[in-house]
Amino acid sequence: MSTTIETPVRVKWVYFFGDGAAEGNARMRDTLGGKGAGLAEMTNAGIPVPPGYTITTAACRQFYEAGGALLDSIVSEEDDALRRLEKMLGRRLGDPANPLLVSVRSGSPLSMPGMMDTVLNLGLNDETVAGLARQSNERFAWDAYRRFVQMFGRIVQNVEGLDVVFDAAKDKAGVKQDTELNAEQLQAITDQLKKHVQKHTEKPFPTDVVTQLELAIKAVFSSWMGRRAVDYRNQFKIPHDLGTAVNVVTMVFGNMGDDSGTGVAFTRDPNTGERVLYGEYLTNAQGEDVVAGIRTAPKIAQMATDMPAVFDEFQRIGQQLERHYRDVQDLEFTIERGKLYMLQTRSAKRTAAAAVKIAVDMVADGTISEREAVARIEPAQVDQLLRAQFDPVARKDAKRIAKGLNASPGAAVGRAVFDADDAVEWVGRGEKVVLVRIETSPDDFHGMAVAQGILTARGGATSHAAVVARQIGKPCVAGCAELLIDYGAKSARSSDSGVAFKEGDWISVDGTTGEVFLGALPTVEARFEDQTELKTILDWADGIRRMGVWTNADKPEEAAQARSYGAQGIGLCRTEHMFREGDRLEIVRGAILVANRATRAKARRAAGAEISADEQQDVATFDAAMAKLEKLQQGDFEGIFKAMDGLPVVIRLIDPPLHEFLPNLEEQLVKVTRAEDAGGASEADTELLATIRSLHEQNPMLGLRGCRLGLMIPDFVKIQTRAILNAEIAVKKAGGNPIAKIMIPLVGHVNELAATRALLEAEATAVREAAGGIDVEYKFGTMIEVPRGALTADEIAREADFFSFGTNDLTQMTFGYSRDDAEGGFLLKYVEDKILPYNPFQTLDDAVAGLMKIAVDKGRSTKPGIELGICGEHGGDPESIHKCERIGLDYVSCSPFRVPVARLAAAQAALANAAERDR
Ligand code: PEP
Ligand code: MG
After folding, report:
1. Are 336 and 262 a contacting pair, CB within 8 Å?
2. Lowest-confidence range among 111-115, 212-216, 388-392, 876-880?
């Protein structure tokens, strides 16, 4: 038997860089942080970087594990690195004759600009300041010391008021600029600052340089959990356990005279993407002077005049780094007595417009591939480019009324109106309006259609307001619970901000952020047609993606819009939306009032029974209304088939419960009661009330809707089938190429689908016979939106050519959350309290995706070629699109304005999936 002695793997806590060689490199971001990895990489690339070392993020995590203490092994490795640095430079930290000064800087794996702390000029005390003076001059040395005390006191020792002490001292000396202070004045001020620190900490300012360094390192580690950093990470969903690295870097001085300077610059303009150096610099200054705006820094181009040779070198290094990192860089640099040092390089943050231009330009110059260009654009940036935005400057000063859910992006400005009819009236007078409702219902559609934007107090990401707003491309803030709306007074007030507005007041709604402002903020418009570079990126995306991108559209104009954005079909045409156009509601109501009676009478008649004269009348009324509806719908479908000529159009038969087409029960009750009090209600109103009552359900979303409705009142299926197929015939006759797919909603049991199919096929046969030789073709499919439907998808697939996942309902029924109420109630609080990681009506929940995967596998087990798509709101959400790719759907369908985003997201999902497979 042999024994092995385990040698513990030694963790390396500190990585050195200097003299053209570094222990780390760019791939070590996780360990060294972005800054440390960048300094190492630049050193290795022969770029001038002041030498130093990086203490790893693992050391930071260890620091927290040890309750805020540094492990001995970390301290000893750090000490070794310091000795190595001192040896390399021939200077020592704390050496009065030849002192080494260092900066101590944070640097996390994911960029968190300005969120953590930095200490400069560390290593100065009453002795070393003299040594520094000998290396430079008295004034410079005391200025550096003064800065160090101020920074160290504020950042490491949490002493407030040091800037006030300094400003007061400047005032007393009668100077405005720091540069006007002489050595004696600076020495006196340094003394005052140290006294201020001592007063607050009750200890003398630390003169021991080793203590200074240890405290500064600990302070940087501690700043990882500082309020600012934690808030930033929460905002940008950066994990809290990454930790920050600490970079200890030899000080180089940009404030050693007019041949010195410091600055920050981007290798391309981060606003426009133009290929010009963009940034600022200051001569005779230290880094924080630029950031703090102590002096107005000239544009970087000025450097070409001030120091042409250094400028050339800087430009060359910028290009080298851009090529090296294959991306635009954000650079920090210092020039010490004519010598350039690079202090930081990182990928530059940029606007959406710049991101797209830069990606296209970099493909053109061969820096990156088309795939990389596609991978680099964030879906949100595409969205931004397609929507009007508020002018960022104006928005900063705007008065915020409230914040709700960012339900449909873009900026809308208009006068507040509180009723859909009022919206139409105001718009008729040439006004722009924002429709403000407690929540919207299909009855408000006409108001939403004419409004610039929509604001609701209740309802979430799949609420009526949100779904319709996205579909018609209007900005919408939904579920703004703090907004107390008084329809009677036509006014609203935020319970949080207290800001109120009334009908006619200008308000501005930001559907991208969920904010609502008082007044009319200026906007910046966007037009897809003009966005050549964006279109190029999307064309490349089309070449990469596996899934198709279809659209949810109910009208020819929406279909045409979506097609211009690149939609490859209609994945959901909600036919019931057509029931509300113009004066159709009256026809629909006429049919609904007698629907049940007429259906019963027809069934009895079909069974051979005699029906009464009253019943005959009901049947006649019902049939007449349905015939009108059929004709109107046929016209609608013709329009849609024409707009989508040659592309598939999935038409879903009626889905919502019938009461949705009738007036609200309470409103009708009030109307009838009032009329009765005043002498008597009309027969029509009384009958309407009785019908509304008879159709009333406690849980309408779980009630008589979808395929259930079609099976109870088969004429709905019949007339819609005829309307679709006759539209197909008409368009074919006119030379078009309509591709019809008929979809049945809310199927939970295969028998529901089989029964509906039988009804529909009988009708189709009749249409075919009457078609006079024209081929009548259609595919027959179902939505999978009821959990039982998903779990029995193998059985359902026997009856279906295609499935489309209705993830709005599937989410509702999987969680048991009402999609109409949950977001206005507990759901957003759940997300805030992290009970749920995100809103499952916005981003597909993993369990819901799991159910879909079961349905995909089961469906394909019965019918391998079955076509699978999604038409719930998740079809336009990038994260959900990634999940759809993993599940193996054939296409996603989303509202027209989300089509470009979905094209990009589908391509990125394909790339991510391929990368995962290769791993
Ligand atoms: C769904 O439920 O996801 C769906 C698309 O249907 P609707 O939103 O019309 O219920
Ligand atoms: Mg549904």
Report:
1. no
2. 111-115
